[in-house]
Amino acid sequence: MAASDAADERRQPSSWFDVVDADLRLSATKVTGLPVSMGKAAASITARSGRLVAQLSDLEISDGAVTGQIAIDGVGQDRTVRLSGTIRDAELGPIFKMALGGLPPPVDGVGTLQIDLTAVGSSWDTRISSLRGSADLTMPEGGRMASALESLMTDAQERGPLLLSARRRRDGSVDALRARV
Fold it and tell me: Within 13 A of 76's CA, how many CA atoms are on the CB side?
């Protein structure tokens, strides 16, 4: 194979992700159709040269607000995926229930969740195993914590860097919850 043939082969796009060049901006005064209450929303999606950025700049949800970004860098053999965002002063139970496909929410109450996660790999399995970052959950006014989450946090505290502060009551509710991984 000639050197120019090899160079042409390397330049061939491996998926639609490599050839799309687009900018999309969306805004709405009210979002409907999801099982949580939502108000106005503004978002943008930019795809260019193997990179995609989806930015949620404003979303009213469950009496709170969400901002965030998903960035995918598909340049090179491994894709880097980064998810960062904040759900601020929102009723978290319905949001978690929706995100978990209807499963019981791990926490229920008004709170703030900040996440910053990064994964790298050529497949979903390698990306999941490379997942790194932080999640910070604060519920200053308390709420309810699922018993499965309590046992998960107890187990995680024994194995790694997890900070958990919760004032628990007998009825399963908490006066305040703060977790950071």
Answer: 9
